[in-house]
Amino acid sequence: SQAQFFRQLQGPMLLFCSADDPINTLPRSLGWDRILKKPVQAIPLPGSHHKIFENPGAKIMAQMILDKLSG
Known about the structure:
This protein is of the alpha+beta class. A two-stranded parallel sheet has the order 1-2. Strand 1, helix 2 and strand 2 form a beta-alpha-beta unit. 4% of the residues are buried.
């Protein structure tokens, strides 16, 4: 199943989300921690849900991913 696949993933999970979208009623992990059975690092980025993939959000995401991959 899909949940079993995700549980097999190793390493930390970065969850990039919009700082501008109101998700105050939802858990910060958006439920991914229940699927993965491990902590999820939620990282709010400037911009709307679709705009986080443009700069400056794209640069922030890229740098954070590089930092995680390099140890």
